[in-house]
Amino acid sequence: MCIRHRPESAQRVPNEVALGRPSRQEAEAAVRTLLRWAGDDPTREGLIDTPARVVKAYEQIFGGYRMDADALLERVFEDVEGYSDAVLVRDIPFYSHCEHHMVPFMGLAHIAYYPTKGVVGLSKLARVVDAFARRLQTQETMTAQIADTIESILQPRGCAVMVEAEHLCMAMRGVQKAGVSTITTQFRGVYKSDPNEQVRFLTFVRNPKG
Ligand SMILES: Nc1nc2c(ncn2[C@@H]2O[C@H](COP(=O)(O)OP(=O)(O)OP(=O)(O)O)[C@@H](O)[C@H]2O)c(=O)[nH]1
Ligand SMILES: [Zn+2]
Q1: Which atom of ligand 1 approaches the CA of 142 most closely?
Q2: 3-class secondary-structure state, position 137
Q3: 169 is known to lie in a ligand binding site
Q4: How far, in Å, is the centroid of ligand 2 from the Cα of 104?
Q5: Out of 3.40.50.300, 2.40.50.140, 2.120.10.80, 1.10.286.10, which CATH number does the structure's domain 19-61 have?
Q6: What is the ipTM of this complex?
Q7: Closest-CA residue to 62 (of 137, 143, 153)
Q8: Where are the CATH 3.30.1130.10 domain residues in the chain?
Q9: Residue 10: which pLDDT band, with cuts at 50, 70 and 90?
Q10: Comparing C-alpha atoms, which of 62, 24, 173, 168 is closest to residue 32?
C-alpha cells in the first residue's frame, strides 16, 4: 500500500475564509426570509425549527465544498498481482443540485480506469462522486471534475466517466417534462484515443445484472 503526498497547491477545496462563509445564524435568518417570501409564517409552530433543520440538511447535501476529492484517492493498494485491466464501478447513486435553480438532480455515475501503479479502494471512487455531487453543479461540470480528479491523482492509462441523471428543475417546474434522462461522458487516455475502449466501457455499463 502506498500513500501519495501532494503539495498544498494541488488541493481543490474552496477556501471558506476567502469566500466569507456566513454564520449559522445568518443562514437560518435567510431561510426565514425565504419562508416569508414563499408566503408562510416562520413563527408558526410547524416552522419554528425549520430554519435550523434546513441549515443542518444543507451541511450534508452541500458538504462536498468541504471534501478534498484529491485526498480521497491518496491511498493506493499495489499488491494486486500485477492486475492492470480496467476497473469499472457502475451504478453509483448520487444526489446533486443544479446551480441554476438549486433544485435536485439525481442518478447514477459509472467510472472506469486502467490502473498503473496499483488500485484505489472502490468506495473512494463513490466518495469522489459525492465530493462533487454535494455542491451546486451542472451535470457536465460534475462529470469533468470526477474525470479530472481520477486522471490527475491516479494517473491511469485511461479513465472513463458516465453520468446519467434526471433534473427535477425540468420535471417539477419550467418545461415540466418528467422522466427525461441526461447522459454525460468524459473519456481520457486510452478511452479517448481508442473507440474500442469506449465500446467496452459502454458494454459493461449497459450489461444487464445477472
Ligand atoms: N447544460 C445543463 N443545463 C442544465 C443543468 N441543470 C439545469 N440546466 C438547465 O439550465 C437552464 C437554465 O435556463 P434559464 O433560461 O437561464 O432559466 P429558466 O428560465 O429557469 O429556464 P427553464 O428551466 O427553461 O424554465 C435550463 O434550460 C435548465 O434545464 C445541467 O446540469 N446542465
Ligand atoms: Zn435547474
Answers
A1: 31
A2: strand
A3: yes
A4: 8
A5: 1.10.286.10
A6: 0.95
A7: 137
A8: 64-206
A9: very low
A10: 24
